[in-house]
Amino acid sequence: MSTLFLRAVLAAVVMLFTAAGMSVAQSTRVAAASTPAQGHAGHAGPQAQPPTPTAQQDHSAHEKPEQKGYPAGIPPITDEDRAAAFPELNGQHTIHDDGVHYYVLFDQLEVQTGDSGTAGSWDNKGWIGKDINRFWFRTEGEAEDGGVGEAQAHALFGRAIHPWWDIVVGVRQDFSPGPQRTWAAAGIQGLAPYWFEVEATAYIGQAGRTHFRIETEYELLFTNRLILQPLVELEIYGKSDPERGIGAGLSSTEAGLRLRYEFRRELAPYVGVTWSRKFFGTADFADMAGEDRSDTNVALGMRVWF
To answer: pTM (2 decimals)?
Structure first.
């Protein structure tokens, strides 16, 4: 037993020294291949040593993911670099920001002329608030014969329910013609498929009056600055309001084409043509008042936002 044990120990020692010798020889060959010759070919100089790691060696395996792909000597882009490259955009949204912003648009600020005469017209909307909750306002009307012929205003609370859609609730005030009316308003507005902008609002007023309005418009780009804007608006009332010349049912429609040129995005003159028509009871009230059931006008105006 002792003889067998001694033989096993000696065999293990021999195998251990043999493996160590092979490892040393392999390391020597690698070091010699990696070190440039200092003397004649085949004779390494006295300074031939294994290479020492330096800062210039490739450490790509240890780089952060965002550092890969950058040329040598160019640092990666940081969040501070991005913030400096994209500062606040004219009071609009900023990068990773939840501040209070605002937007005001005069979509129509124009003079219309046709068979029924010449009148000024405006259509204005805007908001102030954050990304989700905002206060919205709308105003529109006409001015003729030195006074306001028709005017109304909305004050609405809006909440985003989708990246492209808001729901709004609030009040609408009609100022003229006829007696003033106050309405509770609720609706939806946003960008429909194929880039149609839509506003659909329902109203409930005094004495059980109801009203529904839908407006849609589209922007057709001939060039990056020359834009044609078709618009269609339709109004329906639940009951007649003789004092304001409104009949029950489909009351009126209006359509328009406006061609603008954006010298600046915020300032764009335009020319256009509009058509309007009254129906059913509203058309009968127009006949009694000596007004036309339909009208065609040429428009000249300016579109402004800030």
So the answer is: 0.67
